[in-house]
C-alpha cells in the first residue's frame, strides 16, 4: 500500500519492547505486512521489523534472493515471522559485518549465534519452525532484536569496527537489515 519512513537510531520508538500480536487475522496486521514489504523492497533491504516503521508489534519480514552483487550472501527465503522465538543452538558466536536501514550508511562487526532454531507464525497463522545457521541465522537475530529495542551497534565488541560503509568498503555495497 505504501512505502513508510524508516525510523533512524535516536528515535526512542526503536528502543521499545514490541507487543505480542494477539489477532493474527486482523486487517491492521494485513496492511502492516504490505507496508513492511513495500518499504523493504523500495530500500533494497534484507529484512525489516515493524518497530522500524513505528509499529510496536512483534512482526518481522526478511528474505534475500541469490544476487550476483552479494556472492557471499546465501539466499534466505522470503519470510513473514510473527511473535518469533529464537533458541540458540550451542554457544558459538561468529562476527560479521551488518548494516541496518535504521542506521543508514554505517556498518559494524557484530557477534551472533552461529546456529539457531526460530519459531513463530506466518501471515496465514501457519507455524514456522526452522533450524538455520550462518547468514540466515544472523538476519533473523538482527530482525528479532528490533522487537526488543536492540540495534546492532549495541552488540559491537570493538568500536574500531564501526563506521561508514564507504570508508570500510569503498568498492562494494551491501544489504541493510
Ligand atoms: Ni535493522
Can you tell me about this structure?
By secondary structure, the protein is an alpha+beta fold. It has a single domain (12-168), classed as Peptide deformylase (Peptide Deformylase, Alpha-Beta Complex). The chain is 19% helix and 30% strand. The chain has three helices and eight strands. It has a five-stranded antiparallel β-sheet with strand order 1-2-3-6-7, sandwiched between helices. A three-stranded antiparallel β-sheet has the order 4-5-8. The longest helix has 16 residues, at 27-42. The radius of gyration is 15 Å and the shape is globular. The structure holds nickel (II) ion. Nickel (II) ion (NI) is lined by residues 100-102, 142, 146, 177.
Amino acid at each position: 500500500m505504501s512505502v513508510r519512513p524508516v525510523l533512524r537510531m535516536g528515535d526512542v520508538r526503536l528502543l521499545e519492547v514490541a507487543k505480542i500480536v494477539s489477532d493474527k487475522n486482523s486487517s491492521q496486521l494485513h496492511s502492516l505486512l504490505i507496508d513492511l514489504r513495500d518499504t523493504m523492497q523500495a530500500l533494497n533491504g534484507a529484512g525489516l521489523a515493524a518497530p522500524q516503521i513505528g509499529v510496536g508489534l512483534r512482526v518481522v519480514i526478511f528474505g534475500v534472493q541469490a544476487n550476483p552483487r552479494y556472492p557471499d550472501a546465501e539466499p534466505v527465503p522470503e519470510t513473514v515471522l510473527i511473535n518469533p522465538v529464537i533458541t540458540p543452538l550451542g554457544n558459538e558466536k561468529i562476527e560479521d559485518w551488518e548494516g541496518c536501514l535504521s542506521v543508514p550508511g554505517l556498518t559494524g562487526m557484530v557477534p551472533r549465534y552461529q546456529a539457531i532454531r526460530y519459531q513463530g507464525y506466518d501471515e496465514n497463522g501457519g507455524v514456522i519452525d526452522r533450524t538455520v545457521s550462518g547468514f540466515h541465522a544472523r538476519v533473523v537475530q538482527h530482525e528479532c532484536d528490533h522487537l526488543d529495542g536492540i540495534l546492532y551497534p549495541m552488540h559491537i565488541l570493538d568500536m574500531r569496527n564501526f563506521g561508514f560503509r564507504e570508508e570500510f568498503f569503498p568498492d562494494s555495497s551491501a544489504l541493510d537489515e
